[in-house]
């Protein structure tokens, strides 16, 4: 099934398959933070992030967000549509935290009056710098139409996930999305949605249940990921 490796990122590997329109994605336990300066393995992370993404992407499809996801193949692998990743990371924020709080001097946990969509250039070498959509068009990373669609889909993801997590006792603080283009030129949601790429706070205690436990040396990283898998798959 898996042929040659096409790409290796910090948390996943992507393989070609016999079908030129499909890839296999393999989730790793490797974790990095601060642009690769801090590295470790989080035991069970690959399986958990695969399971969480495989649970959420079909739900998002049902909510009108086309995705690259086809099916979960094994504990660490999923079959996806082959896409070319648009090198623009899309961050959606409900509540101030992380780099937003630092950059603007806004206390973490401050509710935002409306969701904020931010864009970064996907570049490890440059540390994913903040950009605006003019920059992405000017440098040929995406068209104006693609970016309009990406923003619409990112907000649709937010409108679906925020109440989905709230019903499971989780505040969705912010998250990062990546989009790709199929061979037919369609923009689809790609990459993953997991505690690596979202901030999740317990609705009662505000306990962090995401990668900030690793970034900030809070301990209990594995338990937090396992708890998020439990909450995500919990029926309401
Ligand atoms: O660090 P920052 O506050 O900009 O992160 C915003 C959100 O995007 C967080 O949920 C974080 O986990 C996610 N993120 C990511 N990959 C990056 C940068 C941020 O998944 N390269």
Automatic annotation (TrEMBL):
Pathway field: Purine metabolism; IMP biosynthesis via de novo pathway; 5-amino-1-(5-phospho-D-ribosyl)imidazole-4-carboxamide from 5-amino-1-(5-phospho-D-ribosyl)imidazole-4-carboxylate: step 1/2
Assigned keywords, A-Z: ATP-binding, Ligase, Nucleotide-binding, Purine biosynthesis
Pfam families the record matches: SAICAR_synt (PF01259)
Reaction(s) catalysed (UniProt annotation): 5-amino-1-(5-phospho-D-ribosyl)imidazole-4-carboxylate + L-aspartate + ATP = (2S)-2-[5-amino-1-(5-phospho-beta-D-ribosyl)imidazole-4-carboxamido]succinate + ADP + phosphate + 2 H(+)
Enzyme Commission number(s): 6.3.2.6
SAICAR synthetase/ADE2 N-terminal domain location: 6-231
Molecular function terms from GO: ATP binding; phosphoribosylaminoimidazolesuccinocarboxamide synthase activity
GO BP annotations, alphabetical order: 'de novo' IMP biosynthetic process; cobalamin biosynthetic process
Family: Belongs to the SAICAR synthetase family.
Protein name: Phosphoribosylaminoimidazole-succinocarboxamide synthase
Species assigned in the record: Deinococcus aerius
Organism placement in taxonomy: Bacteria, Thermotogati, Deinococcota, Deinococci, Deinococcales
